[in-house]
Predict the structure of Probable protein kinase UbiB.
Amino acid sequence: MTSVLRLLTILATFARYRLDLLLPRQSLPWWLRFFLAPLALIPAGKLTRGERMRLALESLGPIFIKFGQLLSTRPDLMPPDIIAELSALQDRVPPFAKEKFSALVEESLGDSVDTLFKHFDREPLASASVAQVHAAVLHDGREVVIKAVRPGIEKTIAQDTRLLTLIARIVEKYSVDGKRLRPVEVVEDYRTTIFDELDLQREAANASQLRRNFLHSPLLYIPEVIWDYSRRKVLVLERISGIPVTQLDALNAQNTDMKKLAERGVEIFFTQVFEHNFFHADMHPGNIFVSREHPDQPQYIAVDMAIVGSLNRADQYYLARNMLAMFRRDYRQVAELHVQSGWVPESTRIEELEAAVRTVCEPIFEKPLKDISFGQVLLNLFRTARRFNMEVQPQLVLLQKTLLNIEGLGRQLYPDLNLWATAHPFLERWLKNRFHPKTLWQDLKRYGPEWMEKFPEVPHLVFNGLQQIQQLDKLRGELTEYRQLRQREARRASIRKRLTLAAVLSLGGAFSLLWPVRDTLLAGNWESIPTATWVLATLGTTLLALRR
């Protein structure tokens, strides 16, 4: 019932802000146009379409706000006026009461804000979908920011994720692609991710790991976590001074090298995914700043590390090789890698998948490389594999989202960004280093102690394995014998059925011939029985006997 009420709320919000005006009515089916027709009675007001969309998403809560944040990074999908409004969702969501913020901090840290901090700014510095941020100064003079989770947000998120789960179950049960898309698993994965975002202690750990990965790096700076002041619902971080990445005028005013800035964003993404295997998975513009120092060698500053992702070694390897194979237009290898990685069934015909991939990619690669969307190519590739029963890979969902964010941001900073030119040498270098003797030596040093610990068990495991193979051969023979027995029984059953049918037909035929002369038979005149009747009766009786 709660999910139904929430669904009604969503529909009411859709109607209130006249979001139907954003839909291309001429391309909608007639029944949907009929359903939307009554909305024409609701005045649209003086709000622009971007404002209506932003206000609707704000009123529906954090999950929908995050969806708007994703759309705000895709100028290739949304018109500029809507992009401008949705950008306000990054860090300008209406704040909650400052008294509640102070109470949350005091409850978590066990003292008043005036005692804990040398200075505490009661006006919010930023307000986002899940948390709110205030500035403060520690007693040792360090400037910090305090982040606290919005009160009561768990209930709203639980409501929305229950509704999404309900919709996902319906899709999985009734949609043709339901089983392949695994919508319930995807929603559950998203639910876990967003609830993890409410645990600021986890975000602090993520920030600490990312900071360590990029320590002294000219590419990315991560603010320091103040652990003594951080709890599950409160996080205190070093305050950074940077230019929001969306303020292009300010970046140009300090003569920032925009080309290098865009390329470094791509390099950061690939470094996180392939070298560190630990990537910031919520890199929308509201979470990214640019250092004011060295504009000719611009450095990014990232905040809000609540959502991170990682891949296993196999997915890293297959993803890198897929990207390189696409870049080289080696569609045969793309098809083979999809099968080898388990993304499509082993029974898939390589030639058919190769032809399908070529059909999608060739028109794209006829464009100049700078005009090709890397993220869109991957999405098209996965979409093409749908008819080959490619299942959704939950471990790649965050990666795809992050890649789209990074590429959308890069295009905003430098429209002529050639993502391929940046990605190609990186992937080539990574694959080469993966099998370099130095890398193999590092793996040996890392896993050597574990291998040595298990080595004494190897002979025993080999002996057990050989025994299991012998038992398996024996079982296979017994299974073959059993199958043969079942086949013989099935043949006998089939023969019995056919004999029974023939017997019934024969006796039925004999009875049909006897019925007209039943009075003669009752009088004892057996000589008048037709010969055909005797034959059918004898045949039917014989068949019944054979059936046994």
Remarks:
- The longest helix spans residues 458-514.
